[in-house]
Amino acid sequence: METVVIVVLTALLAGGAALLVGRRGGGGGAPLVEEIEKLRRTAEEERQRLAEERRRLVEEAQREAEQIRAAAREEAQRLSEQARRELEEARAEARSLRERAEAEADRLRAKVEQEMKARLAEERQRLEADLARDRERVERDLEAIRQEREELKRQDERLARRGEQLDARAARLDELEEKLSQEERQLVQRAEALDRRERELELKLEEIAGLTREEARRQLLERLDEELEEEKAIHVKAAMERARMEAKKQAAHLIAQAVQRQASETAAQLAVSVVPIPSDAMKGRIIGREGRNIRTFESLTGVDLIIDDTPEAVILSSFNPVRREIAKMALEQLVTDGRIHPSRIEEVVEKAKEEMKHFLYERGEEAALEAGVVGLKPGLVQLLGRLHFRSSYGQNVLKHSVQVAHLTGLLAAELGLDTGLARRAGLMHDIGKSVDREIEGTHVDIGIALAKRFGEPPEVLDAIAHHHDPENAETTYAVLVAAADAISAARPGARRESMEDYIKRLEQLEQIATSFPGVEQAFAVQAGREVRVLVKPGKVNDAKATLLAREIAQRIERDMDYPGQVQVTVVRETRAVDYAK
User: Fold this and answer.
1) Is 455 part of any domain?
2) Contact 528, 562 (CB under 8 A)
3) Considering all CA atoms of the chain, what is the largest pairwise distance in Å, rounded to the nearest integer?
4) Of 202, 232, 261, the domain-final residue
């Protein structure tokens, strides 16, 4: 309010000053002074009025403040009374709850005392029963102790009698020892007499035989040398068996070391496929944004896709040749099409898998027709086609199986057996190799399980089970399959060996065998897997034959390179010929 008044006064003074200036300019000064005086009085009256208004407002504010204080005191008193009443009610409620709790506690205390009394009574009865049983057990133990005590008394009596018997026996032993001493002296005297008699007999033998002691010793040593020669051959044979067992362990260690050091190059040859691409710009499209294309491709095919600095080519790596071929087919189609994204990759991979199924079935069907085997179930034909991507020692297993089927059929025809069944057994003998890289176990065990699953005849099962150990075969077909398998695997060129090297290896085997003294003839048989050596029986006995076989085998190991192993068989025979006239 004072601010408003000051503003009004300021405005009035400003107006008065302006009027004064105007009037001075016009020449009239007295009215202006009167006007200013009038304004001053007006301002003074307004100030007084404002002061009165201020006092009035202050008094009204004080009266309102007193009213508010009185209302607040009344409200506080009311709230205090209400709180006092609520406190009294709470105290009464607490006393009631305390009384009820004490009553409940008394009731529970009485109940617990009753239960404790009942439990104590039951426990007392149980303890009394246990005490009775313990008392009976103690009485039985006491009875057993009394019986043992009586038994010990009887044993003491027996030991006492035994001691008396031992004393008597000791006396008899003393008598016998005296007799033995006398007999020992007599034996010494007899031995001296025998020595004298032996010297006399030696002199008579020298006179009768016409040989001196040294000559007789020399003949005896020669005879011992002959006997020891046979003994040495037996020891050599045993040592060879021990060495063979040790060699297996050492060979496993050496193979493991060789695999660790040299497997990378071989694995790269057997587990890597190269896919050409039109330009290096295609590599970025194959990888895709943030690598999504390559991750999708690898997850769908199970093959590692390697993109490196190789110009205009990418590499597929996998030990499974079927999966690697599927990935190759899919990648080639993607590169040709040019549309490379996750959904397209999935579509192309599924299509490549279907094409691979048809391709494998066609290869299996062609092999069955070429081998002359009919009636194979589709599942077996599919597995047979998988052998197209399987190799063993550089030899394609599917072609090897077809060759074994032909050879088994020829052998069965010569023996008058079922040629169709023989060809079937030969074609199926390595069927386990189709999935041996995906299932644990040997290809023999896997092949037996697959043949049983598809209901193959028992002769086929026996051929699969024993084509590596025909000695335990139950049918003739298994023996024929084993022979055909050996012929197919060992023929010239089957395992990357030329005809010239093959013939040279056979000739070298025979030359090494005939270079030893006492050898009459040598023949390399079973495609160089065995050397049969015929010796002269007058120069080589049975003991020396064992040593000769070992020496020939060592020479072959030292001087030749050959696949697998070579068996050395030394044959010694004596013929007696006579004529009846």
Assistant:
1) yes
2) yes
3) 202
4) 202
Q: Are 264 and 324 in contact (CB under 8 A)?
A: no
Residues 267 and 259: their CA atoms lie apart, in Å, by 10
Residue 335 · residue 275 · CB < 8 Å = yes
Contact indicator for 388, 374 with CB cutoff of 8 Å = no
Q: Are 568 and 549 in contact (CB under 8 A)?
A: yes
Residues 394 and 340 in one domain: no
Give the relative orientation of helices 378-386 and 342-371 as an angle to the nearest 10 degrees. 100
Q: How far apart are CA 428 and CA 373, in angstroms?
A: 10
Q: Which residues pair with 101 in a beta bridge?
A: none
Q: Are residues 509 and 563 in the same domain?
A: yes
Mean of pLDDT values over 165-191: 82
Mean pLDDT for the stretch of residues 352-381: 90
What is the spatial distance between Cα 456 and Cα 447, in angstroms, rounded to a whole number? 11
Domain span at residue 535 reads 500-571
In a domain, 366, yes or no: no
Q: Which tens digit of pLDDT belongs to each residue from 455-500?
A: 999 999 999 998 888 888 889 999 999 888 887 776 555 554 556 6
Residue the block writes with tokens 């699969």: 464
The closest alpha carbon to 432, from 441, 424, 419, belongs to 441
CB of 464 within 8 A of CB of 384?
A: no
Is there a domain that residue 495 lies in?
no
For residue 62, give the 3-state DSSP assignment. helix
518 and 486, same domain (yes or no)? no
Separation of first and last alpha carbons in the chain: 176
- Write the CA distances from 413 to 128, 418, 421, 422, 426, integer angstroms: 95, 7, 11, 9, 14
Does residue 227 form part of some domain?
no
Query: Could you read off the pLDDT of 106-119 as tens digits, one per residue?
Result: 888 888 888 888 88
**Of the candidates 229, 244, 235, 317, which has an alpha carbon nearest to the alpha carbon of residue 274?**
317
Q: What is the pLDDT of residues 14-38, one digit of tens each?
A: 555 544 444 444 444 567 778 888 8
Q: Are residues 33 and 166 in the same domain?
A: yes
Q: What pLDDT score does 498 carry? A: 56
CATH of the domain at 346: 3.30.1370.10
DSSP state letter for 429: T
Put simply, whether the predicted model's pTM sits higher than 0.70 gets the answer no
Given pLDDT bands bounded at 50, 70 and 90, which one contains residue 334?
A: confident
Look at residues 356, 381, 396 and tell me which one is the last residue of a structural domain: 356
Same domain flag for 103 and 191? yes
Which of these, 403, 458, 409, lies nearest to 430 by C-alpha position?
A: 403
244-275 pLDDT tens trace: 777 777 766 655 555 444 444 444 445 677 88
Please report, rounded to a whole number, the percentage of residues in the chain having pLDDT higher than 70.
81
